[in-house]
Each structure stands twice: as C-alpha cells, then as structure tokens.
Amino acid sequence: MGIFYRDGEQMEPWQKVGEEVVFEGMFVKIREKRFLKPDGVEEVFQVKGDVQGVKCVAVTKEGEFLLVEEFRVGLEVVKKELPGGIIDEDLTPEETVVKELEEETGYRAGKVVFLGQTNADPYSTMIRYHFLLLDCEETGRMGPEKDEFLKLVKMSREEFENHIYYGDISGRETGLLGLLWLDGRLKVDGVA
Length: 192
Fold this sequence. Notes:
Elements: E1 15-24, E2 29-36, E3 42-49, E4 53-60, E5 65-72, E6 77-81, E7 84-86, H1 93-105, E8 107-108, E9 111-119, E10 127-138, E11 151-155, H2 157-166, H3 172-182
Parallel strand pairs: 4-10
Antiparallel strand pairs: 1-2, 2-3, 4-5, 4-7, 5-6, 5-11, 8-10, 9-10
C-alpha cells in the first residue's frame, strides 16, 4: 500500500539497492534500478536514457521559422519537427544546437538564447536543452549525418504557431518556450 504525505512531512529520496545495464543500443541504454520504497518493499524499475539532447526554435532574419521533415522509425511516420539532436561528448549544449541547425537546415544562428531544460519523462535520465536561435542566415552547408534524410520546411509565424499548438510534433515544449520568449512573456537570465 502506498503512503500519502501530509503538509509538513518531508519526502526523502528512496534508498537505491542496486543498478545494472540490461540493454545498450545506439541511442538508448536501459537500466534496471532496485530501490527500497518507504513501505519497506524492494522494487525494480526500468529506466531509459543517458543521452542528452537539444531542440531549437530557429527564426531567420526574414521572420521565417525553420523546421525539418523526416521519417521517424519509432512511429513509422513522416513528421515536421524542430531542429535538434544528441549532444556530442566534446561539445556543450549550445555548441551542439548551433551545429545541428546548420547540419539539418543549412542555416547559422546570429543569436542563441537558452530557454531552459526539461527531463524527458520520470523513467528516463535524458535531459533536453531548449534554445531559440534568432537571425538565422543561410550558409548553404546543409550536411545531414549518414542516417538522416531531411527536408527543410519554412513556416510563417502563424503557420508555426498552428503547428506547435495543433500539429503532431515532438519537442512541443521547446516551441512553446520559444513563442513565450518571442512574445516577451518568458525571461531567461533577465532577458526578455
């Protein structure tokens, strides 16, 4: 039976009893973590993750929003998505998002705004870093990685908002954070 904590009662992290990697693939690692719960029962949880990622809202000097269209094997559909990727071991999140934007779209950012970070889900260790890339200019150096087959998609602000609010997109939180910042309703490091 679970425990309900009342106001004033302190909830503490559970005691970890053990952990082992049960699967390791190209983009995901699955661990089984054993914890002693507050009721004294030991339980095993499967946790995915370990890769860290970036997503961005990219806006050109002309006010166009840049997305990429690609086939997603997990869902088996073609989707319009925000540029992003997995953080390289030798790069910071900011360096990675700038690199990913140019590789996936052929554009380079004039200004980079860090919007925050979120955890993918409670059973994952993945952290996603959210960015807004402004004043993006075309470089002509689009260079997708060997397993990426991409199409650049440009949208107006209205089209972008509709896609973020109503479309089928991963990384919706990045899009919403970017729109909040553009509307002056999100302050990051004192900047709005």
